[in-house]
Amino acid sequence: MTATGISIRRATRDDVPAIVRMLADDFLGKDRERPDEPLPQSYYDAFERVDADGNLQLVVAVDSMGLVVGSLQLCVLPGLSSQGATRALVEDVRVDGKLRGQGVGEALLRWAIAESKSRGCHLVELLTSRARVDAQRFYVRLGFVESHAGMTLRL
Fold first, then answer.
1. Mean pLDDT of the chain
2. pTM of structure
3. How many angstroms separate the Cα of 38 from the Cα of each of 26, 43, 45, 106, 151?
């Protein structure tokens, strides 16, 4: 899928440093991520687990020069509720800070929605921090509606 000169592809191990840099380039992520060089092994271990799971897809948005400029993770969740409906959960949407507002995030989300439909999902959900007001406006513009109260328990 392409939009604004962007292509979306499955992430590779070589993309992990760029993804972690985008996760850290954020007022919430700056305190929880470690984009050190060398990158902590925990990120590569996590990538291997995600990559091996058929219900998870970590994808990147790549510009015309092959640079990773965005990413997201799509989780396909089979379940019993809603008469056995399968749902998709979009997580960790990130766009390179220099390119925000230029269609990269929209290309990623449109890919996720199309992929969810092709995998038989009846619903696409995403979580975003209440502090991410701009992100919330962006998701509403794409048709998402506020529908749940999210809660977290850190372990």
1. 93
2. 0.91
3. 20, 11, 14, 31, 33
